[in-house]
Each structure stands twice: as structure tokens, then as C-alpha cells.
Amino acid sequence: MGYRVGIDIGGTFTDFALLKGADIVLHKNLSTPEDRSIGVMTGLGKLAEIEGLDLGDFLGQCEAIVHGTTVADNTLIEMNGAVTGLITTEGFRDEIEYRRGFKEDIWDVRLEPPVQITPRRRRLTVPERILHDGSVYTELDEDAVRGCCEKLRKQNVESVAISLLFSFVNPAHETRVAEIVAEELPGVQISPSSKVLPRAPEYDRTSTTVVNAYVAPRVTAYLERLVSRLKEAGYRHQLMVMQASGGVMTKAYMEDAPIRVLASGPAGGVIGSAHVGAKKGCPDLLCVDMGGTSYDMSVVQNGTAPAEAGWNMHHRYLIGVPMVKVETLGAGGGSICHVNNGALQVGPASAGSYPGPICYGNGGTQPTITDALLMLGILSAESTFAGGSFSLTRDGVEPAFQAIGDAMGYSAEEAAFDCWRVVNANMCQAVRRTTAGKGIDPQDMVMLAYGGNGPVFAAIQAQDLGISRVLVPKASPTFSALGTLVAEPSIDEERSYIAPVDSPDLATLKALWTELGDRAQQYFSDANYAAADLTVTYQMNMRYRGQNFSLTFDIAQSSGGQDLSFIDEDLGNRALEAFNRRHMEEFGHIREGEMPEITGVRLATSVHTPSPAVGSGFTAPRAAAKPAMHRRANLGDGFKDTPIFHGTDLRPGHEIIGPAVIEETFTTIVVYPGWKANMDDAGDYELTQI
């Protein structure tokens, strides 16, 4: 029996999900920010120990290791990426700064633009021009390219983005610029837009390529380091990496565009949520993930987690690659509580994994939400923490909250409770903003809570949002890691081609889809997936003339590799019908009498892999669970003697009436007053209002 391991690195903990047959083993250990691959190898060693094997034997039996990483996210959050330069077409030097005139808050006249990845002195231009049809209007000035390289060398540039006009139609000039840069600046990372995002519009392509160049050296260096450690330790297969689009693919595939791993960690949780929701009969989900550093929220509708390209509001850059939509708030167990100008504030700064909250006993001095939960009795210094890896301490916690209480005029316990209230209000408000922007009423959805702290706040948030049902999977503490094992290996790429839908060049369409198919098949072959196992979805991008953005829709699908037999004289008519349906779904109208145009072709290739089994149903007889102990805790109605249950003692059919606390191995589930928790046949929890 082979093992499959899913890994997700968070700001505080690195999570592991080990799949062996139908069984799942969970593990968490502290992240190692100085070199995150150390934390990964430490966790793999612990999994090997659990299985009674040494690390080499364990890795030798691993069929797949799938990894979601936050290296790209952390690089943008901390703004410690590579010194990046940009070479672009003459006349387009400042396009990246214009940002299409976009401003996140048009009413805030003092809102500063995002930090410049490529300040103007590192944005250089060269004479050249390729037209929209791919013809060369002005030949590339190679001497000018070499002059740009000399200027970038003097500025110690580590990474170069190349974005020339219409290179997505004809990449010849961009390819030559990349060759010259490689000659003149050996060792520098090179990001040609024709490999990163070969499509229009121009600003999207340039912005995405610049961000890719900024994060690429950090991402590739980390993955190289991890792959090397895994190989030395005995792992024999390719490392699979989670993509922001919700699929996974090999490290080799990521090398052209490391930007694909941005937000890949949170994407794993959303993919896992969609999988569990479908099995539980809940296709519409509000997914909430509260970890140690952040609070991520997303929406699953009709059983799918849509991936869209566009503004990444968290980092304030336009990212043109498909990304599962996840909104992030700086609210986690490590969020620091403090008084700011007489007002209590929680986050967005975090104590991280080291020194971490005060109660970790690693020298932390600033009170956090985890410390507040300890003060409120939701967590306990008498109980083991993070799977028994260490215990919490109360030393220094109460004085830290008393300092907040002194500033606000109340006790330390009241200060801790107010911190609980503030962070919960922040998270609820973020959910309201997210759902309102999508035209969604949270009351129509089921909440699925995961992450180490998600189940602590889930029921009270659901109550505030008008949601009456909450799902907490047994695997919720490492749910994003588990989600990487649900995600299928996939490649989703596109090529630009502009033509009226009623008169496309069928030979060109066939050539483009063939190119994409051959490229995808080669990567899958390198990863030991046979062409017969592939599912290929052919898609088209279309818009009405004058529209800035295109809609994507499926036009055909095949199993067992490429099948282009759908390309015939009736293709344009079928595409028009499909586009009209998609436009009506998205915007509620179509333009009668207007002929839309094709703007590109897209190919999504995937292969099915075994997913963790998910059970459902409540067939076990109902029985009241017996608490393991009682302790003084405040679950919103003041401090009371509160029953405490151990998750290891609970069985399917057990029912717990709130107020109560359930201590699972890697998380804590709070059953607030007016709520009850039931364990289903699969050992997962369902919380409902009484």
C-alpha cells in the first residue's frame, strides 16, 4: 500500500494529511520561517515515526507528495522579493504605474499606490514593434537590449520581466530579448510574458509578468531546496505543487511561471470544501479558515470553486492567471491585541510561529487571540496543544491583558473577552463584504469551518450571519493539506486568437489547440501519466466588440487524450450559442443582432487521482455524550462551569448541547449557547441552532 501526503505551510503551523487507503492521519508542527523546507522534513519524519518506519522507508513508499506553499504570498506580504527590472516596448515604460486608473478606494484621497516592484529607473524600453496580426513593423534593436542589460547590471537586478507589445501573437522579439538577457546577465531569473501569460490585454500581461519576476527567485529556490532534501531522504517521484487555479502539477511545470503557486495554500482548503460539501449534500458553502495568522473566506456554489483572473486585492496587484477566489483578513490565533488611540484593535500584525503567542512560552510578550482564548477558558494550560507537541502556559498572559484592561478601564478577563468580540466582529464583517459583493445571502448557505481556529468561532459567526448549520470535518485542522490530495493534476493554458465568430480560421484554431494539447501531454507524460488517462476540455474566449473582458465557456470535451473532431464548419454557430448562454448567465442579457468575436482558445487538461473518502449520514442511534471534565469558561454569556469533551471519546450518534467545548487533537470546537453538535457516521461534526 502506497502513501499519499498533502502538505500546507501556514504562517504559524505546517499541516500534513497522510492518506493510506481509506485512512487519514493528521499532523501539525510549527513552521520554520528561516527555511520552510526544514519544517516540511520535520513533519514527514513525524509521519514516518507514526507509521513505525524510518524516513527513507516511508518516503520510498510515498506514491505522491502534494505541496501547497505560501512562499509567493509571504514574499508579497513582506515585500522581500527579488530586485526586479522590466524591459518593454518603447513608449510603454509607465504602463505598469498607470494601473488602468484603478484605485481600490476611490473616496480615500490619501490612499497610497502599492509599493513599486519595478521603480521607474528599473523600467527600460527598447525600439521594436509587432502588430496585432503578428507581423513585424519595427525590427528589434538588439544593441538597445544590451544597453538595458548594462543599466540593470549596475542596479544589481536579480530578476528581469520582459513584456513586449503583441508578444502573445508572435513571441519572436521577446524570445530574442530573453536570449540576450541570459547572455549579458548570467544567473538572473528571466520572465518572458509569452511564457507567463500569453494573452491580452496588455496591462494584465505586464502586471502578471512583473509580479512573477518578483517572486520567482524565492519560489524556485525554495522548491529546489525542498526537492533536493526529499531526494536525499529517499523520495523517488516528482514533487507535485498546488496551483492557485485549484489543480496540482509538477515542479517542472511551475518553473515557467512560479506565479501559479500564489495563494495555492488557501486554494487547497476551498477544493477540499467543495469535495466534502458535495458528499454531504451541501453544494453551496461559505468556507471559513482561521489559522494562526490569517482568516480566509471563500464561496462554493453548485459544488464548484470558481477560478478567476483579476485583481488580487490582498496584494494590490493585478494577477492574470486563474485563481480560486479567496478573501484574506489578518485575523488568526496569533493576531496581536493592542490599544490604538483609545480603541481596542486586533491584528493584522501576527506573532507568527516564533516567538508566537505568550502562552507558547517562547518569549512572546504581546497578547494574541490564542492568549485570549486561554484567558476565557476555551483553551487550557492543562490540556495538550497541537496534537500534544507542547502545552500552553498562563505565565505572563494575565498581566498582558491587564495592561489592555488598564488602558480601557476594566479587568484582564474583560479585556480578553473584548478581544474575542472584536476579532469575531472583524471576521463577520469581512464575510458580509465578500458575499454582498457577489450578490449572495449567507443565510442561504451552509458554513464549513476549518483551520486550527476556524471551529472555535464558527457557530457564533454563523449565528451573527443568520446561518443555521455549520459543518466541521474531523480533518478540519489540516484541511488545506487534505485539499491538496483532492485536487487533480491539471494544466490550464490559453492562446490569443482574434476573429469574428462567424468566420474563424479553422486551421488556426486547430493548430493552437494542438500546440496546447501537445504541451500538456508532454508534462503529464514526464509525470508518468498516460495519455489514455487524460480528460481534455476545449474552451473558447469570446466577447462583444468593444468589451474589455472576455467570457470563457466549454465547447467540447474528450477522454483519453486529444480529439479535435469537433472542429468543423458548424463550430462558429455552436460557439455563438454557447457564448450567448454564458453571457445570459453572467450578465442577464445578450445583444441581439451583434456578432461577438473570438479572442482566444483555452485548453484544460486533467487526470483523475484517488481522493480521500468522505462519508455522510446520521444512521447511528442518538445518544448524549458524557463530558470528560468541567472548567470555568466564558462562551459569550459570562464565566460558567462548562462541560469539556474529548474528541477521542466521541462516537457517531453522540450529541452535545451547548454551552460546551470539544477538544480535538489539533483543534477546539466551541458549541455556543443555543447550539448543539452531532457527530455523523463519518466522525464529522454538524453544528445546528436549537
Protein topology:
Blueprint: E1 3-9, E2 13-20, E3 23-30, H1 36-50, H2 55-60, E4 62-68, H3 71-78, E5 84-89, H4 95-98, E6 123-126, E7 129-130, E8 136-138, H5 142-154, E9 159-163, H6 172-184, E10 189-192, H7 193-196, H8 202-233, E11 240-242, E12 248-250, H9 251-254, H10 264-279, E13 285-290, E14 295-300, E15 307-312, E16 317-324, E17 327-329, E18 335-340, E19 343-350, H11 369-375, E20 384-385, E21 390-391, H12 397-408, H13 412-437, E22 446-450, H14 454-465, E23 469-472, H15 479-486, E24 490-500, H16 506-526, E25 534-543, E26 551-559, H17 571-587, E27 597-607, E28 623-624, E29 629-634, E30 639-646, E31 654-657, E32 660-663, E33 668-671, E34 675-679, E35 685-689
Parallel strand pairs: 1-4, 4-11, 5-6, 5-9, 9-10, 13-22, 22-23, 28-31, 30-32
Antiparallel strand pairs: 1-2, 2-3, 7-8, 11-12, 13-14, 14-17, 15-16, 18-19, 20-21, 23-35, 24-27, 25-26, 25-27, 29-30, 31-34, 32-33, 34-35
Helix pairs in contact: 1-8, 3-8, 5-6, 10-15, 11-13, 12-13, 13-14
Describe the structure.
The two termini are 44 Å apart. The chain contains 17 helices and 35 strands. The strands form nine sheets. It has a nine-stranded mixed sheet with strand order 17-14-13-22-23-35-34-31-28, with helices on both faces. Strands 3-2-1-4-11-12 form a six-stranded mixed sheet. Strands 6-5-9-10 form a four-stranded parallel sheet, with helices on both faces. Helix 12 (397-408) crosses helix 13 (412-437) and helix 13 crosses helix 14 (454-465). The radius of gyration is 26 Å and the shape is globular. Strand 5 (84-89), helix 4 and strand 6 (123-126) form a beta-alpha-beta unit. Among the domains are: 3-75 and 221-261, Nucleotidyltransferase, domain 5, CATH 3.30.420; 79-215, Rossmann fold, CATH 3.40.50; 490-607, Dna Ligase, domain 1; 623-689, no CATH class. Helix content is 32%, strand content 28%. It is of the alpha/beta class.
